[in-house]
Task: inverse folding
């Protein structure tokens, strides 16, 4: 056992129903080092860290902290062992200031039993200074920048005497300047004897800040290296390169006229930040255009703008000659645009309604399903059952509520509804998420069929395999922009990994 | 619809059983005889033409207020202000009843009903707009408007609409405005048939028309929530659905009030008390937010309510005990964890799936 | 009489008396909202407490027994609410509503069954709460402002200040606020959010009890059917307007109390129909709701797009 070992997760295996999240993982971090844990979505990094932090327990394997075996089955235990975690989604109380958040649950009291805010504030400011940054004790988190919020989260762990800090995708929400500031903080932390684990998919940052890096892929460790001995390319190939097992047999595309042209599109997200920063793209009939990229780079907002669910802030969306950037979903649907949304349970379906009620969402007003406003339930049943068969929806009856279906079957309901009305343009966002292999193939075939029948498809997916196999040409989205257009037949996976990480040269 | 799943029905029956038990305790604790109460309860509800007629009469406004409330709920609005609609609908229907002379029977009744429904609908307009455009909780706005309604109609009966120098009441409605009472000694009127008809229409519209589909698309849970992303995604403007739903609810609530005045009391007076609005909420929930369920539950509740009057008359037990027991039943039925807990027993699961193999 | 003349000492006293029940139940609503519990059932708690107070005072001819009974009634109703919502998984709003209906019917039932009275129950045997006369204030300038009120009027100030201190200067207070705003952050910090919600609910039940007792044993000495008359909801609106803080709620409640008090005075001056006057607090509530809604809408501001 390495005497300098701060953390050693040995032979960790953890399985969830249907997927092995961690398989014989061996993860080792030395004291005082900055260690990067790298991998795509679903590689198993979060699960591993949840095990370390006590949120989950491994099925097999051991945990060694500072050389001693430990059982961590509660978060409290992890904290007592000096492990602190800064989650990707901050757990801060918005109307509290930094000290109020940091001291929550353990505020110091004065002689009369009341909270001593003065000394708490001072303590917080002192800790911050010690690690090289400033904190304004009077600023409420809701008014603070993301960088400040993040530093508050870090201070929370330090206040609880953490020696080992786990930062989960910390730069996902930061500007370049804030990222630099964060890196300075991390370096100071390490100078003061702390150990830092840094979970990320951004390889450039790994090379900039980390001492060592562990790459995970599909639940297993692919490689452990010192950053000075490796390169971004190597890391990318470890991260992404895998046997392409999703082959989609299709003919070459034969694109016809252009139907969609997006010009300099800017879209804000729900928080008021800019999510789409000047995107241009076009789609022609008879082709499948893919948008690849790790989630959170503006794809959701792009799709929402194209389907009328979110107003574009600037730019034009020309569809069949008309600007639809401020159209309603109703009008856009009337123009034969289908949308398979990324959020199927709240947006794509009403799980309280029955299967047939969900299936007719885009056709209920037509003959023969209804005439003059009244349903012909026999015809509706026939139509629903036909869709059920065509799209292989597994359920005893279409009268049952959608919430009784499995995730994969629920998605089939959405796909069945959207693809069955002869759309001209189909926008599919994460269409096979949570769907098992056999059905993934079916959905891909259906999308290709749409294309061959003369329609156009925009496929947005964080699953690189899917995009590369199904699309005819692919744009990589990174931080709100399309940084590269590629022909999937001419690029290899590790190259794509680079582009997805923001490296374009 | 698998709302009436075996589990739910079972829970309702067990709830009824427990409620009866609690009733037993309450009655004994106040020094009364429970079996005597039970006997009068049954007689008052079901024995004899007059009692049956009165039971149906009691059920009439309930059918409507329950239907009105459930429509709001299914659109995603937690509307508890139907009571208010009922009050204002009653007042203005009563007013129309004496104000317009020289009208044939059919036209006068229709006019009164129309006015009552319109006023009832308008009463729901403010809460609907407040919720859709200002995000103001409709729970609070509708409840407050209930109190305002009571004060308002009381003021009107005392002031501008007052006709009687002694009693604070409006003038009696003209005969042409009456809904005929069929049985002697009973306030049961043809209004009952109107109520059932409206509930059936509501059932049809909600479940079998595209309009109803659009209204329901966003909500439709037991306690629905506005706004809904599914609706917007499909292109159905959920704000319009919400407002329309509230207006329809208000109209039906106003109708309930109108029928009360035109069919039973025949004039509007200050002490007129309508609690059917609140009872309607409970009935709507018991009927699982379906108008047909509301009809059944209303008939049941109307019967025991009438039975309760008889009990009140014959013993010292006050009739409010019925409402107390129904609310206890609601406590039981609304405790979701009990329903979910039942799922642990395999026999329940089996019976459940047996009953829900479906018709489509 | 000039309308301006209604602003006198008598109005001030009337204001304090009108504000007390609303402020106290409002603060009950405030701490519940602060912890993330939507407590619609406060009306029921007030009614039960009002009734219990009158009933016990009547049977025991003791004011203290009556007050104790009222507090217990309020808390027991709160426990019922907690059981239904937290333990049994019922929807909070539905449970609160059902409790209100239950309490309204239940208290009316008991009044009619036990005493055979309808509408209201009043009896010389009921011992109410007497106003407190401060002898040391006699003859002083402050006497008309501060003396001879029943205890609740004084209590509401202490509750407001006390709650304020608890909110901002104790661990319990920060735990409550964290639970309400971001339960995950609270749980992360080791706070047991379920326990917090329970504590808050029961305490609110006690406050609602005090408010209910005010109506039946202090203001008048009788029980009237449905005597809470929506004050629980007005309290809820006051707490919403006051952002669920004790002082804010107190301020908003004063506003409603003022409307109430002015209304009563105007009635004397202009001989307006009493019902229109009674409508004033409710109409004010609607106005406040609208203001709250508008305030909400003005909150989100998007980032500017850079000019290229």
Result:
């Amino acid at each position: 056992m390495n005497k300098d070992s701060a953390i050693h997760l040995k032979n960790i295996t953890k399985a969830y129903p249907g997927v092995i999240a961690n398989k014989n993982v061996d993860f080792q971090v030395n004291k005082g080092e900055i260690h990067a844990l790298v991998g795509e979505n679903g590689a198993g990094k979060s699960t591993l860290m949840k095990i370390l932090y006590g949120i989950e327990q491994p099925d097999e394997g051991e945990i060694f902290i500072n050389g001693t075996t430990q059982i961590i089955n509660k978060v409290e235990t992890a904290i007592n062992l000096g492990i602190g975690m800064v989650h990707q989604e901050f757990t801060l109380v918005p109307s509290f200031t930094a000290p109020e958040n940091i001291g929550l649950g353990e505020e110091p009291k004065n002689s009369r039993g009341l909270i001593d805010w003065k000394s708490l504030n001072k303590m917080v400011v002192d800790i911050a200074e010690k690690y090289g940054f400033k904190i304004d004790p009077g600023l409420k988190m809701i008014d603070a920048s993301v960088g400040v919020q993040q530093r508050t989260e870090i201070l929370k762990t330090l206040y609880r005497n953490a020696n080992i800090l786990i930062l989960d995708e910390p730069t996902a929400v930061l500007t370049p300047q804030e990222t630099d500031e964060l890196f300075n903080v991390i370096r100071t932390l390490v100078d003061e004897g702390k150990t830092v684990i840094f979970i990320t998919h951004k390889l450039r940052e790994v090379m900039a800040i980390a001492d060592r890096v562990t790459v995970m892929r599909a639940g297993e460790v692919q490689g452990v290296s010192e950053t000075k001995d490796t390169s971004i390319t190597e890391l990318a190939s470890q991260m992404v390169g895998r046997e392409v097992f999703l082959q989609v047999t299709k003919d070459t595309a034969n694109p016809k006229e252009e139907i969609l042209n997006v010009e300099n599109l800017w879209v804000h997200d729900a928080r008021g930040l800019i999510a789409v920063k000047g995107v241009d793209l076009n789609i022609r009939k008879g082709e499948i255009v893919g948008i690849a990229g790790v989630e959170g780079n503006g794809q959701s907002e792009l799709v929402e703008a194209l389907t009328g669910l979110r107003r574009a802030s600037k730019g034009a969306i020309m569809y069949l000659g008309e600007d639809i950037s401020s159209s309603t979903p109703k009008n856009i649907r009337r123009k034969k645009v289908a949308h398979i949304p990324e959020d199927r349970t709240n947006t794509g379906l009403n799980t309280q309604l029955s299967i047939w009620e969900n299936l007719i969402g885009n056709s209920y007003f037509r003959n023969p399903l209804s005439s003059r406003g009244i349903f012909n339930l026999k015809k509706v049943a026939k139509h629903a059952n036909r869709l059920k068969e065509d799209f292989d929806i597994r359920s005893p009856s279409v009268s049952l509520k959608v919430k009784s279906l499995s995730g994969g079957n629920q998605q089939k309901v959405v796909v069945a509804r959207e693809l069955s009305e002869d759309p001209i343009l189909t926008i599919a966002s994460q269409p096979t998420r949570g769907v098992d292999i056999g059905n993934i193939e079916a959905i891909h075939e259906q999308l290709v069929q749409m294309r061959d029948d003369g329609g156009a498809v925009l496929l947005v997916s964080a699953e690189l395999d899917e995009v590369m196999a199904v699309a005819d040409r692919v744009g990589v989205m990174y931080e709100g922009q399309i940084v590269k257009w590629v022909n999937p037949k001419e690029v290899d996976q590790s190259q794509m990994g680079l582009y997805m990480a923001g490296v374009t040269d | 619809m698998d709302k009436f799943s075996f589990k739910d029905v079972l829970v309702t029956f067990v709830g009824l059983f427990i409620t009866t038990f609690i009733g037993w305790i309450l009655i004994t604790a106040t020094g009364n005889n429970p079996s005597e109460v039970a006997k009068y309860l049954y007689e008052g509800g079901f024995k004899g033409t007059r009692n049956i007629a009165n039971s149906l009469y009691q059920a009439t406004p309930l059918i409507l207020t329950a239907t009105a409330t459930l429509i709001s709920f299914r659109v995603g609005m937690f509307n508890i202000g139907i009571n208010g609609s009922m009050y204002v609908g009653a007042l203005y229907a009563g007013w129309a009843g004496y104000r317009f002379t020289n009208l044939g029977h059919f036209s006068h009744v229709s006019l009164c009903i129309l006015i009552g429904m319109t006023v009832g609908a308008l009463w729901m307009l403010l809460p609907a707009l407040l919720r859709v455009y200002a995000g103001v909780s409709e729970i609070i706005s509708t409840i407050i408007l209930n109190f305002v309604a009571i004060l308002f109609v009381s003021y009107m009966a005392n002031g501008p609409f007052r006709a009687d120098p002694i009693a604070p009441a409006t003038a009696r409605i003209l005969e042409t405005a009456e809904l005929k009472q069929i049985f002697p000694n009973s306030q049961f009127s043809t209004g009952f048939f109107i109520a059932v008809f409206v509930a059936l229409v509501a059932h049809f519209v909600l479940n079998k028309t595209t309009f109803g589909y659009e209204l329901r698309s966003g909500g439709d849970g037991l306690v629905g929530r506005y706004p809904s992303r599914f609706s917007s995604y499909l292109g159905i403007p959920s704000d319009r659905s919400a407002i329309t739903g509230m207006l329809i609810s208000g109209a039906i609530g106003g109708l309930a009030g109108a029928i009360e005045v035109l069919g039973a009391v025949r004039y509007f007076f200050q002490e007129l008390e309508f609690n059917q609005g609140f009872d309607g909420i409970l009935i709507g929930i018991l009927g699982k937010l379906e108008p047909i369920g509301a009809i059944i539950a209303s008939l049941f509740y109307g019967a025991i309510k009438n039975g309760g009057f008889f009990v009140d008359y014959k013993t010292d037990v006050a009739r409010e005990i019925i409402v107390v027991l129904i609310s206890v039943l609601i406590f039981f039925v609304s405790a979701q964890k009990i329903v979910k807990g039942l799922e642990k027993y395999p026999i329940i699961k089996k019976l459940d799936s047996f009953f829900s193999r479906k018709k489509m | 009489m000039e309308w301006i003349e209604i602003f006198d000492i008598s109005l001030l006293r009337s204001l304090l008396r009108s504000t007390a029940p609303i402020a106290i139940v409002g603060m009950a609503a405030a701490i519940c909202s602060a912890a993330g519990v939507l407590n619609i059932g406060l009306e029921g708690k007030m009614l039960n407490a009002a009734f219990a107070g009158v009933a016990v005072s009547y049977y025991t001819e003791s004011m203290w027994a009556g007050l104790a009974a009222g507090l217990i009634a309020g808390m027991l109703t709160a426990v019922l609410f907690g059981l239904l919502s937290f333990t049994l998984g019922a929807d909070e709003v539905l449970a609160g509503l059902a409790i209100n209906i239950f309490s309204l019917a239940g208290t009316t039932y008991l009044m009619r069954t036990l005493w055979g009275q309808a509408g209201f129950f009043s009896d010389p045997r009921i011992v109410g709460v007497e106003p407190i006369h401060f002898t040391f204030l006699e003859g002083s300038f402050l006497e008309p402002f501060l003396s001879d009120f029943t205890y609740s009027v004084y209590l509401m100030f202490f509750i407001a200040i006390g709650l304020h201190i608890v909110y901002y200067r104790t661990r319990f207070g920060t735990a409550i606020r964290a639970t309400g705003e971001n339960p995950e952050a609270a749980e992360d910090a080791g706070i047991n959010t379920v326990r917090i919600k329970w504590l808050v609910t029961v305490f609110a039940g006690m406050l609602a009890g005090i408010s209910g007792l005010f109506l039946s044993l202090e203001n008048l000495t009788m029980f009237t059917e449905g005597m809470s008359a929506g004050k629980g909801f007005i309290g809820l609106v006051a707490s919403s307007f006051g952002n669920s803080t004790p002082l804010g709620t107190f301020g908003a409640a004063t506003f409603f109390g003022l409307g109430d008090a002015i209304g009563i005075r105007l009635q004397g001056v202009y001989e307006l129909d009493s019902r229109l006057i009674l409508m004033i607090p409710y109409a004010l509530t609607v106005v406040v709701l609208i203001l709250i809604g508008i305030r909400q809408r003005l909150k989100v501001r998007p980032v500017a797009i850079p000019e290229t």
User: Anything to note?
Assistant: The mean pLDDT of chain C is 85. Chain C has one domain: 7-121+145-294. Residues 193-219 of chain C form the longest helix (27 residues). The domain at 7-121+145-294 of chain C is CATH 1.10.3470.10 (ABC transporter involved in vitamin B12 uptake, BtuC).
